[in-house]
Amino acid sequence: MKKTFLIIIGTILLLPTMAFDAFGINLTDLQHEVYRPENLPAGRLGDASPETKINDIISFITDLILYAAGSVAVLMLIFGGITYIGSLGNQERAERAKKIIKFAAIGLFVVILAYAVVTNVIDLIFRATT
Description:
single chain; mainly alpha
């Protein structure tokens, strides 16, 4: 069981590498395209006004938190589905898996709603100051 689990985890961890190879992307290209300083708030700040700097930093932090929370919710949905499939008729495990799926779906909904609210509030605040 432990060996099978390690094989599954290893495969999941290697999937991005295999996908990069399939699409012809190497690690250097990925670093230059994704990890550019312009993608981070510090790279865009330069001569910007204080309001723009604050807006960029707040947006970056909220996006980072919301993306991480959304990713965890999706992973929990996947985990709940795998647990449900693996319950094999065991009612306790099936109920536990249903709870995981239900709470992960609620969490994903809350993350999406929070993203919409935060985005609109930031827009309203900074539209009012300009």
